Amino acid sequence: MTSLKKWAFPLAAAALCALAPASQAKQNSCDEPILIGTTISMSGPLATLTGNWDKMTNIFAEEVNKSGGIPIASCGKRVPIKFVIYDDQGNPATAVSLHERMATVDNVDFFAGTDWTFVVMPVSTVAEKHKIPIIGGNVATPAAFERGLKYFWSTPFPMTFNWDANYFDMLKNMDEKDRPKTMFWVTQDNPVYKSVRDIWAKKYEELGIKVVGDETFPNDLKDFSSIVLKIRSARPDVIYINSFDNVAAPLLTQLRQQRVRARGVHFPIVSLELGRQTKAVGGIEGITGVVGWIPGVKSEFADLMKTVLDKANVNVFESATVMPRFTSYLIMLQAIEKAGAVDREKVREALFKGTFKGPTAPVTFDEKGQPDTRTLITQNQDGNVVVVWPPNLSTGKLKWPAPSWQ
Questions:
Q1: What is the pTM of this model?
Q2: Could you tell me which of 269, 282, 388, 284 has the C-alpha nearest to residue 322?
Q3: In what order do the strands lie in the sheet with 288-291?
Q4: Rounded CA gap, 158 and 324, in Å?
Q5: Contacts of 7 (CB under 8 A, 6+ apart)
């Protein structure tokens, strides 16, 4: 299959922005831009997670179109892409209404990028009704894929059953004397994070890492003193903070203030905002986390991703959930090229159990549309973010035990 590098770098087609006038696309056309519909939570409770994603999406289209667009075999030429973007406000009903509009008024060819399990689950039924392939972004819950849908895929980093795959491998590959023996889980009351705990706590037990604490906290909790006392009493080797960053910032602050010790602290979403909120007490130094890709990591798409993100002023450490959306765009374009036509059914066939190039490794979908994506494991070291696992993509070595937690 033709490499995406050929898309990334002189024809520029302006991408449609939020609430732009409807475009009447023609299916299977070689003479009009390929229309990709998406919604972004630009306002509402999730807006803090999506800063400049609309700008990023438009710039992505511009970069792809600099080489003329996507090579389409049946057209014998490249065809440019355009995005139709609306603000779903993080509201499922709004997202459904907007996807209906894009299907029936804007007449988009495909859907890509829409985020969040609770939003995409109802939206995917719109795609199914209109037989429009959709690749969602941040949809990590297996239940979303258990509904027998034929037009739905997603590219989270990662699914809950792969959530800790590389962190688990990293611990498993430690020397026996270094491997942690105990772990304390602190989990946000959120279905995704509770699923992560249910799956991975058992796996760590099987590896010989005993779970010595398992606490669940409500989303609005500010005083973690009772949990901190339990952690101090249990003296775990690893403190696993299983939540969104802002929600658990008070916990991290209180752990630092109480000088709780551990060999390692793992917090999947280690954002710069988390670092700012906790800087006065030692912040995120030494903490391990996960990310889909960061600048400096080798990738076929590294130049394209860095160019788009830099131009859009999107920082992967500020926007930890951006790579699933970016990957959905990459894979949709590959699927269209693989199909050889701007044809929904042919693209669906290309996506079914297909394998595509991802930011750091191939992405393969199973028959349900679930991907086998994995994350990179990072550690904050002396103010820098270093990839410490897997070894073939690492940019530094793990500091273990974490010095700032001793």
A1: 0.86
A2: 269
A3: 210-217, 182-188, 238-242, 264-266, 288-291, 376-381, 384-389
A4: 8
A5: 63, 64, 67, 69, 70, 304, 333
Q: Which residues contact 320 (CB under 8 A, 6 or more apart)?
A: 49, 245, 269, 270, 271, 291
- Give the 3-state secondary structure of residue 78: strand
The domain ranges of the chain are 5-157+300-364, 162-291+376-405
CATH superfamily of the domain spanning 5-157+300-364:
Response regulator (3.40.50.2300)
Query: Which residue's entry shows tokens 């406000």?
Result: 89
3-state secondary structure of 30: coil
- What are the pLDDT digits (tens) for 190-245? 888 999 999 999 999 999 999 999 999 999 999 999 999 999 999 999 999 999 88
Tally of residues, the chain: 406
> In Å, how far are 24, 75, 300 from 9, measured between CA atoms?
28, 21, 13
Q: Superfamily for 162-291+376-405?
A: Response regulator (3.40.50.2300)
Q: pLDDT tens, 84-129? A: 999 999 999 999 999 999 999 999 999 999 999 999 999 999 999 9
Listed in sequence order, the residues at least 6 apart from 198 whose beta carbon sits closer than 8 Å to its beta carbon are none
Burial 306-339 (b: 16+ CB within 10 A, else e): bebbebbebbbbbbbbbbbbbbbbbbbbbbbbbb
**Dihedral (CA of 44, 47, 49, 55) sign:** positive
Q: Are strands 376-381 and 384-389 parallel, antiparallel or unpaired?
A: antiparallel
Please check whether the two domains, 5-157+300-364 and 162-291+376-405, share a CATH topology.
yes
**What count of other Cβ atoms lies within 10 Å of the Cβ of residue 130?**
17
